[in-house]
C-alpha cells in the first residue's frame, strides 16, 4: 500500500493527525495504534517508537525540515552574539557613564518608591537617637496582607532594658513582634519612613536574626545543629552596637538541654549589652532571668475561656511573663484531638505544675538581684532627670514622687522575702559580696543616694539597715 494511500485513510478516520515536538526530535508524527489495526508501517516512516496507545515516527522530509530549523536557530544565535560583541566594543568607552546612569536610575526608583509608600500609607519619619521607642509599630509586610485586622504594638529599649524576653501562646504573634522591630530598624537606617505613629531609633552597625526552624539537607545538619551553628556565629560577632532577634531557641532538642542552652546563651547576650528580643516558650527562662539587670519580661496577651477552652488571641504586647496556663492544650482542643488524650494531658500537666511549685524555694540571691535591679532602675531615672529639661518645682515634685515609689517598691521586696533562710549558695555569694571592694566589706548600714542640685533643689533617696547589699 502506498504511503499517501495509508495517510489518506488515516486522515479519513482521524482528520486531525496529531503533531508534537520535543527537544531531541523536534517535530514528529503521532499515530493512534488502534487505527492501524496491527498493520506494518511503510518504510517511509523512520524512528518508529511505540508509547502506550500512540506510535511516534518521522519521515526523511520531516527530518530535513527539522534540521533546517536547527540551522536557522544556530545562525540567529551566532548573529545575535556578534551583534552583542560589537555593541560591547562600541559602548566600552562610555561604560563609566553608563554605570553612573544606572545608579542614578536605581536611586530615583528607590526614592520614588519611598515617596509612594509614605503618601499611600500611615508612615512616620523616624528620629535617630540613643533610645529605641516606637509607638503603634507595625510589620511592613504583614499589614499589607491583612491591613484591616492588623494590630500595632509599642516597642521600647534602652541600656537598662536591653534584653527583652517575649513569651506567649502558640500563634499569639511573638515572631511577628520581634521581626517587626528588626525590619523597622533597617528601614530607619536606610533613610526610609517607618510604619508607626512615632519612631525613635538608635544607629546600630549589625543586625542578627535566628528565626527559622528548618533542617538543612544540603549542609547535612538538623534543626538543632543549624540553631547552634548560627548562634555560635552570633555570639562571636555581637557587640553593644548590635540588634539581635532570637526566636524559639532550643526547641530542636530535649526540654532540659534546650532550657540550659537557651539560658546560657541568654546570659552571654545580656553581657554583650546589645539590644536583644528573645522569643521563647520556656517559662522558666523568663522567671530565672527576671531579676537580672537589663532584662525585661513581656508577653503577647490572650483571653482564654475556661469552660469552653476557647482561646482569643489579642496580638497585643503586655508587661510580665505569660500567665495563661495550658495554651498548648487549648490549641490542641481546637484541632479536635480525642477527648481521652486531652484529658490525660491536662492531668499530667497539672501534676507537673504542682510538683514544680513545691520544689521552688525562696532565695537570698533572688532578693539581692531584685534590689539591685530596682536601684539600677532608679539610677537610670535620675540620670535622665539630670540631663533633662525639668527644673525648679517641677523637678522637685517629680523627684519626691520617684522617692516615694522607690521606698514603696523596696519595702514590698523586703516584705516578700521576710523570714527567709539563706541556702549554702546564698551564703557563699554573701561572703563574696562582703569581701568585694564595691561594698567595702559592709553589709550593715548601706545608703544608696543620688543628689541632684538645681535651683537649690536637693533630694536624697536612701535606705538604711539592710540585710544584704544593694550595690549595682
Automatic annotation (TrEMBL):
InterPro entries recorded: DNA_mismatch_repair_MutS_C, DNA_mismatch_repair_MutS_sf, MutS, P-loop_NTPase
Domain called DNA mismatch repair proteins mutS family: residue spans: 242-258
Keyword Nucleotide-binding among record annotations: yes
Entry annotated with the keyword Ion transport: no
One GO process term, biological-process aspect: mismatch repair
The protein, known as: DNA mismatch repair proteins mutS family domain-containing protein
Keywords, comma-separated and alphabetical: ATP-binding, DNA-binding, Nucleotide-binding
Pfam families, sorted: MutS_V
MF terms (GO), sorted A to Z: ATP binding; ATP-dependent DNA damage sensor activity; mismatched DNA binding
One GO location term (cellular component): nucleus
Region (Disordered): 416-445
Family statement drawn from the similarity comment of this UniProt entry: Belongs to the DNA mismatch repair MutS family.
Coiled coil stretches, renumbered: none
Amino acid at each position: 500500500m502506498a504511503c499517501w494511500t495509508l495517510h489518506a485513510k488515516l486522515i479519513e478516520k482521524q482528520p486531525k493527525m496529531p503533531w508534537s515536538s520535543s527537544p531531541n526530535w523536534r517535530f514528529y508524527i503521532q499515530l493512534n495504534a488502534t487505527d492501524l489495526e496491527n498493520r506494518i508501517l511503510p518504510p517511509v516512516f523512520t524512528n518508529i517508537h511505540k508509547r502506550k496507545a500512540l506510535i511516534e515516527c518521522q519521515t526523511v522530509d520531516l527530518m530535513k525540515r527539522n534540521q533546517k530549523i536547527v540551522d536557522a536557530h544556530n545562525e540567529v544565535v551566532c548573529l545575535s552574539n556578534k551583534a552583542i560583541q560589537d555593541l560591547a566594543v562600541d559602548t566600552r568607552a562610555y561604560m563609566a557613564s553608563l554605570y553612573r546612569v544606572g545608579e542614578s536610575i536605581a536611586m530615583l526608583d528607590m526614592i520614588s518608591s519611598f515617596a509612594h509608600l509614605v503618601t499611600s500609607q500611615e508612615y512616620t519619619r523616624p528620629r535617630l537617637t540613643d533610645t529605641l521607642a516606637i509607638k503603634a509599630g507595625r510589620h511592613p509586610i504583614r499589614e499589607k496582607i491583612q491591613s484591616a485586622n492588623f494590630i500595632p504594638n509599642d516597642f521600647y529599649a534602652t541600656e537598662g532594658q536591653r534584653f527583652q524576653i517575649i513569651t506567649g501562646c502558640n500563634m499569639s504573634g511573638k515572631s511577628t513582634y520581634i521581626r517587626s522591630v528588626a525590619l523597622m530598624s533597617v528601614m530607619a537606617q536606610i533613610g526610609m519612613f517607618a510604619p508607626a505613629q512615632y519612631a525613635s531609633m538608635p544607629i546600630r552597625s549589625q543586625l542578627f536574626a535566628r528565626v527559622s526552624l528548618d533542617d538543612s539537607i544540603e549542609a547535612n545538619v538538623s534543626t538543632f545543629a543549624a540553631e547552634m551553628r548560627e548562634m555560635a556565629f552570633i555570639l562571636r560577632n555581637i557587640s553593644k552596637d548590635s540588634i539581635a532577634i532570637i526566636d524559639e531557641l532550643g526547641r530542636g532538642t530535649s526540654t532540659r538541654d534546650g532550657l540550659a542552652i537557651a539560658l546560657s546563651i541568654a546570659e552571654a547576650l545580656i553581657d554583650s549589652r546589645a539590644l536583644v528580643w528573645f522569643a521563647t516558650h520556656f517559662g522558666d527562662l523568663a522567671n530565672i532571668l527576671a531579676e537580672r539587670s537589663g532584662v525585661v519580661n513581656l508577653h503577647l496577651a490572650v483571653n482564654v475561656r475556661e469552660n469552653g477552652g476557647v482561646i482569643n488571641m489579642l496580638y497585643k504586647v503586655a508587661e510580665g511573663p505569660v500567665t495563661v496556663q495550658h495554651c498548648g492544650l487549648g490549641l490542641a482542643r481546637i484541632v479536635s484531638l480525642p477527648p481521652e488524650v486531652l484529658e490525660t494531658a491536662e492531668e499530667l500537666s497539672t501534676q507537673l505544675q504542682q510538683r514544680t511549685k513545691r520544689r521552688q524555694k525562696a532565695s537570698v540571691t533572688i532578693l539581692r538581684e531584685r534590689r539591685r535591679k530596682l536601684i539600677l532602675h532608679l539610677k537610670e531615672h535620675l540620670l535622665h532627670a539630670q540631663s533633662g529639661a525639668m527644673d525648679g518645682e517641677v523637678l522637685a515634685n517629680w523627684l519626691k514622687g520617684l522617692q516615694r515609689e522607690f521606698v514603696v517598691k523596696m519595702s514590698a521586696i523586703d516584705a516578700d522575702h521576710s523570714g527567709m533562710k539563706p541556702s549554702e549558695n546564698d551564703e557563699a555569694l554573701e561572703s563574696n559580696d562582703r569581701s568585694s571592694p564595691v561594698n567595702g566589706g559592709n553589709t550593715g548600714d548601706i545608703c544608696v543616694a543620688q543628689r541632684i542640685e538645681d535651683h537649690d533643689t536637693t533630694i536624697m533617696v536612701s535606705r538604711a539597715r539592710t540585710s544584704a547589699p544593694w550595690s549595682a
